[in-house]
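User: Please write out a complete single-protein record containing the residue sequence and its fold in C-alpha cell form, without commentary.

AI:
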Amino acid sequence: MPQELKIVYYVEPDAAALARRAAQYFVEQAERAVAARGRARIAISGGPTPKATFSLLADPAQPWRTRMPWSQLDLWWVDERCVPPDDPDSNYRMTREAMLDLVPLQPEQIHRMEGELEPEAAATRYESELRHSFRLEGAELPRFDVVQLGMGPDGHTASLFPHTQALSELGRLAVANHVENKDAWRVTLTWPVINRASQVFFLIGGADKAQILNEVFTGPRHVERLPSQLISPVGGILTLLLDRAAASLLPAPDAQSCGVLERIE
C-alpha cells in the first residue's frame, strides 16, 4: 500500500544559524529518547555541515553541552570511508576532533565503523555489533532514536550512491559498497535500517545543494539515480534542516521559516 510521506523543512538564514538549529535538534531528540526509554541511540554522518554542529555540542560556552545527556547516549555512524581512523578522510576522525575528544563519552558508548578493515569484514563486524547492542533476533531491524543524514551533489545519502549495489540490499544492516566513479569502498547502513529510525533528518547547507535537493524532494521518483529518495521513515515524517541557500528552489517557507511537502511513496 502506498505511504504518504510528509517532508517538513526548516530554513535558517546562514550556515552558523543552521549549525545552531541542528545542535538544538540533536539535544531535544536525545532528551526525548532518554525520557521515554532511558537511552538515546543516535547515528551520525560526516561532512563540514555536521562538523560545525558537533563543535557547538562540545563547546562548554554553549547551552547544548550541558543539556546533552552524554552518559545515556550511544553514538553510531551512518557510513564510513574505508580508511584508517586517523586518516583525514575518516568520518570518525572528523567527529573525534570536533566533539568526541571534548565530551564525557566513554569508549563503550562510541560505535565506529572500522574502515581500516577489508570492506566486507568491516560491514560484517558493524552488523554484528548492531545485532548485539540492539539485541536483535532473526530479521529484526535496529531502531535508532535519531539518524542524521547529509546529501551529496549527485543525490546520494549515507554511502548509498547512484547505481550501486547497496541500493538493492534489503536484508543486511550494513554493507560494503563500491563506488565506481570514486574508485573507492565505503561501509554504510542500509536504507531499510535508516527508515526504521524514530526520527530521520537531513542536514544540508550551501547553494551547491539547491538544485539536487529540489529534484530529490519535488521531482519524479528515480531512486537508482537519486538514492536520497529511498529515505522514507516508517513514521511518515522526514525532517530537513536547511540554510537559505540550499532551500532557495523549494517553495517559500511560512513566517516561522517552516515548509511542508507531501509525497506518495
Observations:
- The chain has one domain: 13-264.
- Residues 84 and 230 are 29 Å apart (CA to CA).
- The chain has a mean pLDDT of 97.
